[in-house]
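Notes, p. 3: input format for complexes.
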Amino acid sequence: MTAQIVRPYGDTTGDGRIQVSFTLPVPFRTRDEQARAEGAALQLAGKMGLDPAMVVHAKGMGPDFTFFIVYGRVSHLVDLSEVKVAKREFELLSPAEINLQIRSSLGRKLVVVGATIGTDAHTVGIDAILNVKGHAGEKGLEYYREIKVVNLGSQVEIPNLVARAFAEQADAVLVSQVVTQRDAHLKNTSELAAAFREAGPDRPLLVIGGPRFDPAMTSELGVDKIFGRGTTPRDVASYLVHAIAPARAGTAA
Ligand code: B12
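Output follows (253 residues plus cobalamin):
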């Protein structure tokens, strides 16, 4: 049975050893600069509660920055009974169940329009969900007979996405945001939600995804659902069915 109170494992069970990496705006060119940089890293590690702490890797990043990996011991305990896990609010269905449910509930194909917005050119995530080749051993939404996928690609401007979504009579708009520098993903998502709000009351479902989103931020960002790291196409298809084409009484789910 797993213990309720656990500590990190480094060299031996429960020794509390962890490894952290960070960058400081300090140079690392001369011997003196290197010694000062490592001292700065150890000072930060100490303030973070790592005792003892050891710089196991330091590398200059351009003339003014240094990247560090620090290995050290923390005294904190993890109480597993206090861990909160968000519960999935929809049932995970098979592709056959998803197709059947769309057909019996909507009586037509479910239409999704996908894109990345802003300057974000990372398409691997949205393609993993949409393209037939899929992700993690699962086929993407293009594989589903009852789903029509319109993949607009990358760096789509929000007004163009809104126009296309209405032109396609999209049931859902799927947007990927991978770059999070200066909170670009949050700003772009809020702008997307505002643009759809302004476009009229009958907007499609807004589904956002990316590795660094907090799935609990849906209402704050004005969208319907946020998917994070490790999402699979079946997660998304099951959610779409739950939100757009729920099972009618008496139909198979
Ligand atoms: C491949 C890659 C690139 C490729 C992208 C090629 C392409 N066509 O996509 C190239 C080389 C072009 C690139 C460029 C850049 N990149 Co880059 N890139 C990566 C890298 C290595 C992998 C990303 C990836 O493909 N992951 C695999 C996919 C499957 O995972 P995913 O995106 O998380 O998607 C999953 C989930 O998040 C979710 N999901 C994602 N989107 C959606 C959408 C919906 C609707 C749903 C439901 C789910 C969902 O489902 C997916 C499957 O599980 C990451 C580092 C990393 N290891 O993650 C950096 C990274 C994302 N890149 C980064 C940066 C900085 C850049 C550049 C700015 C670099 C530069 N200075 O030029 C440019 C930006 C270009 C631009 N305009 O956007 C940073 C971002 C840092 C930040 N905090 O924002 C990262 C994290 C690297 C780093 N550590 O610095 N990059």
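Residues 166 and 200 are 10 Å apart (CA to CA).
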